[in-house]
TrEMBL record, chain B:
Keywords: ATP-binding, Nucleotide-binding, Transport. Belongs to the ABC transporter superfamily. SUPFAM superfamilies: P-loop containing nucleoside triphosphate hydrolases. Pfam families: ABC_tran (PF00005). One of its GO terms (molecular function) is ATP binding. This is ABC transporter ATP-binding protein.
Length: 257, 307
C-alpha cells in the first residue's frame, strides 16, 4: 500500500496540473490581503476555510481525481498494475488517499500563506492552534464532498470535458446552496442542508466565526439554531464518503481491460 | 500435478451473442515456446487476457502452474511477465522512471533489475527522453523490458515484435529463444506473422474465430506438412494418364494445362521425369516442394493467408 501511494505521487512528476493545484492555494489569501481589510486572524483564516475550500479546492479535487482515475485508462497502464497484481480496490483507495492528502495539504498551504500575510500586516495570531486545527479539518471535510462527483466521473468514464462540466455544476450548486436560507435554515434531517456537503460543512464551520456588524450578527443568531456539532458534520460526511468509496470500488471492479 | 504450465479447459468468452473465444483448450509445456497463431481478431489477445485474469471468462477454467488463476492471483501473477496489446506507460515519465515505478510495486529486490532489463532490450538506463517521445519500436522494447524485469518463470507475450524494425525483430527473436533455452523460461507468444512463429516456437496452436483448430509441436506439423513434386509439362492431360496407367496413382492434382502436383511420395522425380519424356511429353520444370506454414494455415482455416 505504501509503495502504491508513493507510485501515485511519482506519476505527478512533470504534471503542471498538480503544481498549479498547489499554487492555487495562494489565490484567496493574497486576494483577501489585497482587497479586504480583515482585522483578526480568525477572519483571515475564515477566508481560507470558505472561499479557498468551497470555490477552489473542491473543483481542483475533482479535476485531480479525473486525472488520477483516467491516467491508467488513457495510458493503458491498468493492465500492468493488475498483472502485478494490484487489487482494484487498493488502487481506488490509494487514489482517494492521494486526494485526501492533497486536500489537507492545500488547506494547510492556504493557512501558511494567510499566516504570513497576517504577520506582515501585524495582525495578532490569536488562537493559532485552534485556527490551524479548524483549517486542517476543513481539508479533511472538503475531501468527502468531492467524492459523489468523483463517483460520477468514474462512472461515466468518458472524458475530461464531461468531468469539467460535472465539476462546474457541482461546485456552483454547492456554493449557491450555502447562501440559500431555504436550504440552510432547516433542522438536521433528510434535506439538502444536511445531505449536501458544502451546506453541512458551513453549518459546522460558521459557529466558529465571529460576526461583525448588524447584518452578520443577525444572520449568525438566526442561523445558530441550525449549527451542527463536529461529530454530526464529520459523521454525515464520512458516511457519505464511505458510500461513495464503496460505489467507486464496485464500478472499478466491474470494469474489464 | 499436470505437466503443463498453462492449461485451459473449455475456456470461453462471450460478448453479447458473439463468442470471442469458444471452448479453448490449450496446453503449454514447461520450458517450451508455444506460439498462438491466428489472424487479427481471432481471439488470441482475449485468450491471453483471460490467462492473466484481466478479463473474466464466461465459462471454462484457466490453470497456471497447476492452480486455477482465479483466487490465486497473488501467488500466480508475480511469477508471470506479460505484454498485452500496445505498451502502456506514463507518458510524462522516462522509460527508466516508468520501470522503477513498476519495479517498486512488484517489490523487485535486485537493485540492478531495471538497468539489466533495459540493457537486454537495448534501451539506455537513466535517459532523459520521456516515454511520450519514444518511437513505436522503443515503446515495444520498454514493454518487453517490463515483462522480464522481475525474472518471471512464464512469459505471456502478445505480438511482441509489433513495431520493431527487422534488426529489432531478429534481436527479440534470439533473446526470446535464449530465455527459453538458457534460462528454462516457458513462453507463450501470439503472432499473426507466420514466418516469425515458424522460426521461434516449439509448439503451435492455431486459433481462428475463437476456436483452437490445431495444437501440436512444430516438428509434428512439419511432418504433416504436404510434400509434393511440381511438374511443368507440355500437356497435363497426357501426364495425368501416364500417372494413372504407369504408376497406378491418382494422388495428384492438375492445376492447369501445364502444371501438375504429385503428392504420392512413392515415386522419385527421376522416375517420373523419365516416364513423361519417354511418352513424348516436354518437361520444362520439376521441383520437390513442401507446404509452408502459411499453406498449412490456409488449409486448416479454410481461407485466405494470414498476413
Amino acid at each position: 500500500m505504501r509503495n502504491l501511494l508513493l507510485s501515485e505521487f511519482k506519476k505527478f512528476k512533470r504534471k503542471k496540473l498538480f503544481y498549479f493545484g498547489i499554487l492555487a492555494a495562494f489565490i484567496f489569501p493574497l486576494f483577501n490581503a489585497v482587497l479586504l481589510s480583515d482585522s483578526t486572524f480568525a477572519s483571515v483564516q475564515s477566508g481560507v476555510r470558505e472561499d479557498n475550500a468551497f470555490l477552489l479546492l473542491m473543483p481542483l479535487l475533482i479535476i485531480l481525481a479525473a486525472n488520477l482515475f483516467f491516467v491508467e485508462q488513457d495510458n493503458d497502464t491498468l493492465k500492468n498494475l493488475l498483472c502485478i497484481p494490484v487489487p482494484k480496490n487498493q488502487l481506488v483507495l490509494v487514489k482517494l488517499l492521494v486526494l485526501f492528502i492533497f486536500s489537507v495539504a492545500f488547506q494547510l498551504m492556504g493557512f501558511a500563506v494567510s499566516t504570513v500575510i497576517a504577520v506582515s500586516q501585524t495582525i495578532p495570531l490569536t488562537d493559532f492552534a485552534f485556527q490551524l486545527t479548524l483549517t486542517a479539518s476543513s481539508g479533511v471535510l472538503m475531501w468527502a464532498p468531492a467524492l459523489p462527483c468523483i463517483v460520477l466521473v468514474v462512472w461515466f468514464n468518458k472524458s475530461y470535458i464531461l468531468s469539467v462540466i460535472i465539476v462546474f455544476f457541482y461546485t456552483l450548486l454547492n456554493y449557491v446552496m450555502h447562501f440559500s436560507d431555504a436550504i440552510m435554515m432547516q433542522p438536521f434531517g433528510i434535506n439538502a442542508g444536511t445531505l449536501m456537503p458544502v451546506p453541512m460543512i458551513f453549518r459546522w464551520l460558521y459557529q466558529f466565526y465571529t460576526p461583525t456588524g448588524e447584518i452578520q450578527t443577525e444572520f449568525y443568531n438566526r442561523f445558530s439554531q441550525y449549527f451542527v456539532p463536529a461529530s454530526v458534520c464529520f459523521g454525515v460526511l464520512l458516511l457519505e464518503a464511505a458510500v461513495c468509496i464503496y460505489l467507486m470500488i464496485r464500478i472499478y471492479r466491474r470494469r474489464e481491460i | 500435478m499436470s505437466d503443463f504450465i498453462i492449461e485451459t479447459k473449455n475456456l470461453t468468452k462471450q460478448y453479447g451473442e458473439q463468442k470471442s473465444v469458444a471452448n479453448l483448450n490449450i496446453h503449454v509445456k514447461k520450458g517450451r515456446i508455444y506460439g498462438l497463431l491466428g489472424r487479427n481478431g481471432a481471439g488470441k489477445t482475449t485468450c491471453m487476457k483471460m490467462l492473466l485474469n484481466l478479463t473474466m471468462p464466461t465459462s471454462g477454467e484457466v490453470q497456471i502452474f497447476g492452480k486455477s488463476v482465479q483466487g490465486n492471483e497473488k501467488r500466480i501473477l508475480p511469477r508471470i511477465g506479460s505484454l498485452i496489446e500496445a505498451p502502456g506507460f506514463y507518458p510524462n515519465l522516462t522509460g527508466t522512471e516508468n520501470l522503477k515505478i513498476f519495479a517498486q510495486l512488484r517489490g523487485v529486490s535486485k537493485r540492478t533489475a531495471v538497468k539489466d532489463a533495459l540493457e537486454v532490450v537495448g534501451l539506455p538506463y537513466g535517459d532523459k527522453k520521456l516515454f511520450a517521445q519514444y518511437s513505436l519500436g522503443m515503446k515495444q522494447r520498454l514493454a518487453i523490458a517490463l515483462s522480464i524485469m522481475h525474472d518471471p518463470e512464464l512469459l505471456i507475450l502478445d505480438e511482441p515484435i509489433n513495431g520493431l524494425d527487422p534488426i529489432g525483430i531478429a534481436e527479440v527473436r534470439s533473446f526470446i529463444r535464449d530465455l527459453c533455452d538458457k534460462k528454462g523460461k516457458t513462453i507463450l507468444i501470439s503472432s499473426h506473422i507466420l514466418s516469425e512463429i515458424a522460426l521461434l516456437v516449439d509448439d503451435i496452436g492455431i486459433i481462428d474465430h475463437g476456436v483452437l483448430l490445431e495444437e501440436e509441436s512444430l516438428a509434428e506439423l512439419e511432418e504433416k506438412n504436404g510434400k509434393y513434386i511440381h511438374f511443368i509439362v507440355s500437356d497435363t492431360a497426357q501426364a495425368a494418364r501416364i500417372m494413372e496407367r504407369n504408376f497406378g496413382t491418382q494422388n495428384f492434382t492438375v492445376e492447369n494445362d501445364h502444371s501438375l502436383r504429385i503428392y504420392d511420395n512413392n515415386f522419385s522425380v527421376a522416375a517420373l521425369n523419365r516416364a513423361f519424356i519417354e511418352n513424348g511429353l516436354e518437361v520444362s520444370e520439376a521441383h520437390t516442394c513442401e507446404d509452408t506454414l502459411e499453406d498449412y494455415f490456409k488449409r486448416i482455416t479454410g481461407g485466405e493467408g494470414i498476413a
